[in-house]
Amino acid sequence: MEALLAFLDMGGYAAFVWPCFGLAAAVMIYLFVASRRELKAREARLEALRAASPRRRSGAAQREAAS
Amino acid sequence: MSRAATTASESRSLHRFANPARFLRAADAVYPWALAGLVVSLGIGLFLALFASPPDYQQGDTVRIMYVHVPSAWMALFVYASMAAGSASYLIWRHPLGVITAKAAAPVGAAFTFLALATGSLWGKPMWGTWWVWDARLTSVLILFFLYLGYIALMNAFENAERGQKAASLLCLVGVINLPIIKFSVDWWNTLHQPASVSRIGTPAIHESMLWPLGLMALAFTLYFIVVLILRTKSEMLNARLRALGVADLGGR
Amino acid sequence: MTRKRRRLHVALLGLLSLGTATALVLTAFEDNLVFFVSPTKIAEEGLEPDRYVRIGGLVEEGSVQQLEGNRVLFRVTDLAHAIPVTYDGILPDLFREGQGVVAQGSIGADGEIFVAREVLARHDENYMPAEVAEALQASGQWRPESGQPPPR
Hints:
The complex is a heterotrimer.
Chain A: H1 2-9, H2 14-52, H3 59-66
Chain B: H1 3-8, H2 10-14, H3 20-50, H4 66-93, H5 96-127, H6 136-155, H7 161-175, H8 178-188, H9 208-244
Helix pairs in contact in B: 3-9, 4-5, 4-7, 4-9, 5-6, 5-9, 6-7, 6-8
Chain C: H1 2-28, H2 30-33, H3 39-45, E1 53-59, E2 65-66, E3 71-77, E4 82-88, E5 100-107, E6 114-122, H4 130-138
Parallel strand pairs in C: 4-6
Antiparallel strand pairs in C: 1-3, 1-5, 2-3, 3-4, 5-6
């Protein structure tokens, strides 16, 4: 228990050391999760479009549809 | 295109990695390994950084801030250098992958730069006695942060996506000049920030017991960049396809 | 191919001229980019009263004196010249004899003592555990450029 408290105290610099690690963890986890979520959303959207119109599956059909 | 034609031209074979389909195959192969490596190096790195490394003889336990601050700062520079390489390949050789990866990397670089500034501030207060000073090192890193923000803003500022890509890539290339300024600011001018400890001539000025956690955290941050870059680049490619299909993007920015 | 070659040349030329221009600008503004001046420079050029500057150097060995209250008197040295400094306030944790320091303020009315309004500590690029520092000191391998050996 005492060892744990000493560890958390960081030699009296807890107010500087822990926010550092906390901030880095928060920023990096957020960016990872947001990037992954965006990718999954776009994958799902493209998949839904494909399912809705099977003609778009081939590149030729895609160009046809676009023109 | 025949194999003979591909190998006939030296430059074409050099540029073969700029092919998006080839990139996707390589990225999917690398991703699980990079993620596994990230988990392992971050786990060991954090253990060493927080528990199993000694306090500094002068700075006590605040030295642990170094294990986040220094890798963040290295990555802030490294990500920008990679973006500049991508921007150059886009502007000069018109490789679409160059600008796609640079655009995908920009928020990661901005995040690392923010972390370098914020953790530096949290370190500066107890040790130097101030949150911030306008010395050459701190100011040039703040400029780097604004270069990242400017790049992201320019990229999205135009109705026509291609114009945004060209303007942002040009800004990125111009901003490269800031990288040597950041790196050598502590040698060219006197600053409150101390000179380099690891990348100096001769042996590093950091004891081995502190060099290990630093190295592992730097490895973890590099792998984190690769992992998030792969996710964001794939996402950017899908977004381009959705736009080509004339579909409004629902997946966020 | 020629268009790509041309764009490459334009980019290289642009970067080169940009680099040259930046180098010239930075050289021209060198005095503003310097964060602090050394005691030697002040000894050479003098310092008008009321001019607000930062002086940087090492806290001279054995020069720190506690005065009444929080006031402290010490000398900032670059090993060639030294300037006495007074400061009234809380010193940063890293403030130590033999360690780097930056004092911000102006020369006092007597023209001798520098009155600091802010004192910042500066540390060097060396990081090591206390035991290693002690061992280095005991074996006489402490490199003088690494600054002051650990207190104790």
